[in-house]
Amino acid sequence: MLKILHRLIGITGKYKTRIRASYITSFIKGIMMKIPLMLSFLIISLFMNGNMDKMKCLYLGIAVFASVILEAVFEHITNVLQSGAGYMVFADMRIRLGDHLRKLPMGYFTEGNIGKISTVLSTDMVFIEENCMGVLSELVSFITSQTIMVIMMFVMDLRIGILSLLFVGAFILVGNLMLKSTLKHSKIKQECSESLTEEVLDFAEGIGIIKSYNMLGDKSKKLTDEFEKSCRESIKFEVDYTPWARALNLTFGIGTSVVFALCAYLYYIGSINNIYMVGMALFIFDLFVAIKSYYSQMARLTVTEASLNRIEEVFAAEELKDEGMAVFEEKSEKLNADLTLPSNDLHPEIEYDDVSFGYTDKEVLKNISFKINKGEMTALVGPSGGGKSTIASLLARLWDIESGSIKVKGKDIKDVKLGSLMDQISMVFQRVYLFQDTVYNNIAIGRPNAAREEVEEAAKKARCYDFIMQLPNGFDTVIGEGGASLSGGEQQRISIARCILKDAPIVILDEATASVDADNERAIQEAISELCRNKTLMVIAHRLKTVKDADQILVISDGRIVEKGNHDSLMDKNGVYAHMVSLQTSA
């Protein structure tokens, strides 16, 4: 248990001093908890010896009242120092987690970790901050109170003190065995929680496809199975914990009875007087309450252990190395300026040099090399799964390459701050995500410090101003999560508006009109024309008619560039590209 408590303290960071200060107030609170008992014993002994008078009675009464008030005061201070700090600790941790997730490669999110992230945020952190941070101070109070009670037993009689100490040892033995047993079930229980969250998210996100293919039965059964599994594991946890909780209660009952029986026997043989016997009657039912309460926190602490493991596992995920940030931090004091990409017309705007890349153990790209000059358009074409989107994603460092280099304006992108790199790039893909926020804020993401007039102008250029003004509150209309309240074409135009507002010199375009109706296609084409004016373009092309005017066409197949050139030269070769054009034309 002490190991778990040490781990809890370890995550408190800058609030560690407050947590440790709460130990002092909690220690004093533990003493104050037992002072009324000790004063009561003193009052009884004075009465029984005939030594009580009015002044003593008044002073002792005031002392009892004062101890109760002080206990409440120190408990309040402890809560302010520790429980309050717990919420601040996890507020900071959530911010750190957001910053950490921002720096992870996209592969982390596509490898089944969404459920884990969601569970960490919605379950693990909430559980610890609400249930466990306050436990730290309580445990100090329990230890203090138990120590005082054992010392009182030694004061009463050496034999009673030794017997009490033996039962404290029995509590520790039972508690440690309980800890070892419940830790295993806590881990499984939390894993089930993660699996269930993953399945719920998958079911909710895919409900449209599930209904359209009449798969509600199959998918519902899978979700139901996860609920039942989670239920079974929760019950197993309780079933495993209950015998140990019963053993703890039995130890408490037997210990209390045996110690009191020893007191009665010692009184019977005259080893202790009637005052001490009355005192024992006063103390006995509180003798082991503290240590019993200490180990009653076991279930919460074992779940905490599993939660901490999962939180640390997410934080341990390797971030993309931001060498540019390291250089910036090293030079910032001298330069007092951001490290930005150089503007150098002597170098190509974009250059891939012998780039290879794979997801885990699957190689996707092999020895990719090409250049794009400033203001040129390069189209990536080829069969699905050939690696076109991966090539574009690597430019934005959504993943890091394994070998070779990618340069922008002559600078290796690994040597540039991620923030500075992304300032140079706008990305428009077929799958658009809009946040549950106002239309205005969804566009202003492109440049948060832009004036309202600039946001509205971007919307006009993206051909979405008119339909926005027809919404109930215009630009201040809140749209559903993921843009659910807008059509696909409307979502796409808003995403283009945010890119126009950003005004980055490089645009990555995954042909945005591939899955929209004719009316929206015309508006989106006009919006894209506004976006791409005087920009360097990398276009992932699905309709080959849209890339005829490209300065360079790269045919990507099986992770390699199999053909390179403009439309006319590739048609003259009568190779893969010409065959693709022929198939699309005939279709």
Task: Give an overview in words.
The protein is an alpha/beta fold and 587 residues long. It has a domain at 2-315: ABC transporter transmembrane region fold. Helices cover 64% and strands 10% of the residues. It has 22 helices and ten strands. The protein has helices at 2-10, 16-49, 54-102, 106-109, 114-131, 133-156, 158-205, 207-212, 216-268, 274-283, 289-296, 298-315, 323-335, 388-395, 418-423, 439-444, 452-461, 465-469, 488-502, 518-532, 567-573, 576-586, and strands at residues 350-359, 362-372, 377-381, 403-408, 411-412, 425-428, 506-510, 536-540, 552-557, 560-565. The protein has a six-stranded mixed sheet, sandwiched between helices. Strands 2-1-4-5 form a four-stranded antiparallel sheet, with helices on one face. Strand 9 and strand 10 form a beta hairpin. Helix 1 (2-10) crosses helix 12 (298-315), helix 2 packs antiparallel against helix 10 (274-283) and helix 17 (452-461) crosses helix 19. The longest helix is centred in the middle third of the chain and has 53 residues, at 216-268. It is elongated and about 115 Å long.
Would you spell out the secondary-structure blueprint of this structure?
Blueprint: H1 2-10, H2 16-49, H3 54-102, H4 106-109, H5 114-131, H6 133-156, H7 158-205, H8 207-212, H9 216-268, H10 274-283, H11 289-296, H12 298-315, H13 323-335, E1 350-359, E2 362-372, E3 377-381, H14 388-395, E4 403-408, E5 411-412, H15 418-423, E6 425-428, H16 439-444, H17 452-461, H18 465-469, H19 488-502, E7 506-510, H20 518-532, E8 536-540, E9 552-557, E10 560-565, H21 567-573, H22 576-586
Parallel strand pairs: 3-8, 3-9, 6-7, 7-8
Antiparallel strand pairs: 1-2, 1-4, 4-5, 9-10
Helix pairs in contact: 1-12, 2-3, 2-6, 2-10, 3-5, 3-6, 5-7, 5-12, 6-7, 6-11, 7-9, 7-12, 9-10, 9-11, 17-19, 19-20
